[in-house]
Design brief:
single chain; alpha/beta; FAD/NAD(P)-binding domain; 5 helices; 7 strands
Length: about 210
């Protein structure tokens, strides 16, 4: 299994970075933060990931329920066609995917929202949240871009975008991280994830940056 090239659906290199990135602090080990960390490891940039909880994955969390893995979040890859990077990464990581329509069998669903954008805002407001501040503070997450707003693959896409910005490249490489990708100053020390399902375990092995729980 080897790393592959990923982009955020755009061929440009995002600007706004002050200088060259030599060391990066990633706050949050959700899919956006882990995507950035993985890409930086392949790009040879030292990276430290800070996570407040005792597990990684963010909303991608799998638990054991009576001996069976159950996803508490991130169970669906929406719109898998059209260059969805999460679908491609699932294939790379060996996560099986099956097409389905859950709507006819739903007994109920959550109508809530978890966006930081107020009602009445437009796509440009989401894109604005992804703009760097002072050339050093960068933002990633499912609500920092309008293309895949509110989806987990949008978080991954935003992580790719920021990794492109940090590395100054139109695409990045994602995949398993070996010792050859890591400097002696940045050993692969990753705190075990709580869940042992498909996403949690594979992202744990794919990180390649040190993870420090707060």
């Amino acid at each position: 299994m080897t790393a592959e090239s990923f982009d955020d659906g755009r061929a440009d290199v995002p600007g706004g970075l002050a200088g060259t990135a030599e060391r990066v602090l990633v706050v949050g080990a959700g899919i956006a933060g882990l995507t950035v960390a993985n890409a930086l490891a392949h790009g040879g940039v030292e990276c430290l990931v800070l996570e407040a909880r005792g597990r990684i994955g963010g909303r991608l969390h799998t638990v054991d329920l009576a001996g069976s893995p159950v996803d508490l979040g991130g169970s669906w890859i929406h719109m898998p066609g059209g260059g969805n990077p999460m679908h491609a990464f699932a294939r790379l990581a060996g996560v099986p995917c099956h097409g389905a329509d859950p709507v006819p069998e739903m007994a109920g669903f959550d109508c809530g929202a978890y966006t930081h954008i107020p009602p009445g805002a437009g796509p440009a407001d989401a894109d604005l949240l992804g703009e760097p501040v002072a050339g050093r503070l960068l933002f990633a997450g499912e609500h920092t871009q309008s293309a895949r707003l509110a989806y987990a693959d949008g978080a991954m896409t935003s992580g790719i975008r920021e990794a492109k910005r940090l590395l100054g490249m139109p695409s990045v490489r994602l995949g398993p991280v070996s010792a050859a990708h890591l400097s002696r100053r940045c050993p692969a020390r990753v705190r075990p994830a709580v869940g042992r399902g498909a996403w949690s375990g594979r992202f744990e092995r794919y990180t390649g940056a040190r993870l420090r729980a707060g």
